[in-house]
Structures are given as C-alpha cells and as structure tokens.
Amino acid sequence: VMIMVVIALANRYVLVPRMRQDEDRAAPLFVWMTKLEWAIGAVVLVIISLLATLEPF
C-alpha cells in the first residue's frame, strides 16, 4: 500500500507538472504509472481476500 502512495505522490507532484512542459513524454509515463497503481491495488485486494479466508490459529 505504501508503494501505491509513493506512486500517487510521484504522479501528482512530478509527472503532472511535467505535462505542462513536455506532454509527449510525461503523459505515457503517467498512464503507465496509473496502470501500475491499479495493478498493485488489485494484488493487495487478492492478498487481503486470501488472508481473510484463512482460519485463525
């Protein structure tokens, strides 16, 4: 989850300001980072779902 926060902060404070200067390079990287964040979120949900089905010891 911490990685998702770092990606979101990088998108907001690094990539978005760069889009004003060099949109051709920053926009594809922004899209890629956003997809990566979604993928990590899906993995986190799968892990939490699997852990929720385990019996407590």
From TrEMBL:
Listed GO CC annotations: membrane
Annotated Pfam families: CopD
The keyword Phosphoprotein belongs to this UniProt entry's keyword annotation: no
Alphabetical keyword list: Membrane, Transmembrane, Transmembrane helix
Residue stretches making up the Copper resistance protein D domain: 1-51
Membrane-crossing segments per the record: 38-54
Name of the protein this chain belongs to: Copper resistance protein D domain-containing protein
Native species: Escherichia coli
Organism classification: Bacteria, Pseudomonadati, Pseudomonadota, Gammaproteobacteria, Enterobacterales
